[in-house]
From TrEMBL:
Example GO molecular function: oxidoreductase activity, acting on the CH-OH group of donors, NAD or NADP as acceptor
Family label: Belongs to the UDP-glucose/GDP-mannose dehydrogenase family.
UniProt-listed NCBIfam families: NDP-sugDHase
One GO-annotated biological process of the protein: polysaccharide biosynthetic process
Domain UDP-glucose/GDP-mannose dehydrogenase C-terminal: 323-420
Oxidoreductase recorded as keyword: yes
Keywords: NAD, Oxidoreductase
Protein name listed in UniProt: UDP-N-acetyl-D-galactosamine dehydrogenase
Tagged with keyword Oxidoreductase: yes
Length: 426
């Protein structure tokens, strides 16, 4: 393999930690179309909080010509002498839950403009099986004028990181790799194996690697949907779901999933990629889509449960003061994309409640821009009729909730973290 010079295309939650890791060993050019993101990274700050500023600053380079290190840019000429291009751009769905491949097409055009003989393009974005070879490769060929598997090659290596998880960082997660020929597969595998301490698994084809990633998240989605369904059933029966799960969990092969809101960029989105492709093949994916329907409806369900409890306590809903704790899509991370806490808020608002939102992690500006909602980053100094603990941020365990709640008030703990706290499991 020629000495790698790596371009990472898309410096978000996935791209930046990966670029930082490769930069400890190779020259890496981080490319992103978002000028603001490039500016903040060049100044040594990562607003996603995935890479600590000090760690980022250790690898930052102020020139694109270096032996090792990371140079961040939005200028295409800076990536023209790379021989590996790793694409880590978003793969969202539209409002009808259909896959949006535009960022993949656009970033493939960018790479196509600088592609040279012998180069390898590795896709990391989560996709349905076939996207790399059937959607991205034709763009690379058209723009570069080069021939696939003769002049240039591709690989696919899905990312498994988990935003906000400081334990399972990129180098500590075994990485699935693949290539467009057996030789290129080995080459891609060696590249990742040189930095991933947890090791690699070379899949037999790109489609296998693509499918593996999308089913990892679909499996998780379906399992959570199942316990969400159980929670609904046991709520009707007046049985404590967490206690049931704890009892059942004493069996060796009972899977420890918890009910909750499934949002974010991955688990709530990726199953739709697989479902879409299955439908193109004439198969209606019943279980995958039932899981999605169940999980997508949980925000509305939580809101209706809160309202039910308030009615039982004779609290007038319209005009009542409610505090929602947490708006990010998961705990201890600032990511608010596709957060289902917003569904809870929207539904509670529709009953006429006055909603206050406190989140110590989320950016006020981003929440306002994305959802038109105002949040505060400090614990409010007033009393509420209802508190909904929507996200399990660690800060919430230290709040004196009694001081914030009116005497007859309702406290709804979506994730059951208060029970875990009392029992010393948090
Ligand atoms: N966030 C996660 O934890 C996670 C985990 C595993 C897999 N994934 C997958 O990884 C992919 C990336 O996700 P993410 O969370 O890092 O997204 P992100 O939105 O945080 O980052 C994507 C970056 O790509 C940039 N970008 C968009 N179009 C571009 C283009 N044409 N050229 C260059 N840059 C471009 C954006 O400006 C952004 O900075 C997705 O497919 C996602 O499903 C994400």
């Amino acid at each position: 393999m020629s000495t790698p010079k790596i371009a990472v295309i898309g410096l978000g939650y996935v791209g930046l930690p990966l670029a930082r890791l490769f930069a400890t060993k190779y020259p890496v050019i981080g490319f992103d179309i978002n000028e603001e993101r490039i500016k903040e990274l060049q100044s040594g700050t990562d607003s996603t909080l995935e890479v600590e500023d000090e760690i980022l600053q250790q690898v930052l380079s102020d020139t694109p010509q270096m032996e090792t290190g990371l140079y961040c840019t939005n200028q295409i000429e800076n990536i023209s002498d790379c021989n590996y291009y790793i694409v880590t751009v978003p793969t969202p769905v539209d409002h009808t839950n259909r896959p949006v491949l535009t960022p993949l097409y656009k970033s493939s055009e960018t790479v196509g403009k600088v592609l040279k003989k012998g180069d390898v393009v590795i896709y990391e974005s989560t996709v349905y099986p076939g996207v790399t070879e059937e959607e991205c490769v034709p763009v690379l060929e058209r723009i570069s004028g080069l021939k696939f598997n003769e002049d240039f090659y591709v690989g696919y290596s899905p990312e498994r990181i988990n935003p906000g998880d400081k334990e399972h960082t990129v180098e500590k997660i075994l990485k699935v790799t693949s290539g467009s020929t057996p030789e290129v597969g080995k080459q891609v595998d060696r590249l990742y194996a040189s930095v991933i301490t947890a090791g690699t698994h070379l899949a037999p084809s790109i489609k296998v690697a693509e499918a593996a990633k999308v089913i990892e998240n679909s499996q998780r989605d379906i399992n959570i949907a199942f316990v969400n369904e159980l929670a609904k059933i046991f709520n009707l029966m007046g049985i404590d779901t967490n206690a049931v799960l704890e009892a059942a969990g004493t069996k060796w092969n009972f899977l420890p999933f918890k009910p909750g809101l499934v949002g974010g960029h991955c688990i709530g989105v990726d199953p739709y990629y697989l479902a879409q492709k299955a439908q193109e093949y004439g198969y209606h994916p019943e279980i995958i889509l039932a899981g999605r329907r169940m999980n997508d409806g949980m925000g509305k369900y939580v809101a209706s449960e809160v309202v039910k409890l308030m009615v039982q306590k004779d609290i007038k809903i319209k005009g009542s003061k409610m505090l929602v704790l947490g708006i990010t899509f998961k705990e201890n991370c600032p990511d608010v994309r596709n957060t289902k806490a917003v569904d809870v808020i929207t539904n509670l608002k529709s009953y006429g409640a006055e909603i206050h939102i406190y989140d110590p992690w989320a950016s006020k500006e981003e929440v306002n821009e994305e959802y038109g909602l105002q949040i505060v980053n400090q614990v409010p100094d007033e009393k509420f009729d209802t508190i909904v603990l929507a996200v399990a941020h660690k800060e919430f365990l230290n709040i004196d909730l009694r001081a914030l709640l009116n005497e007859n008030g309702v406290l709804y703990d979506v994730k059951g973290i208060l029970k875990c706290k009392v029992e010393g499991r948090l």
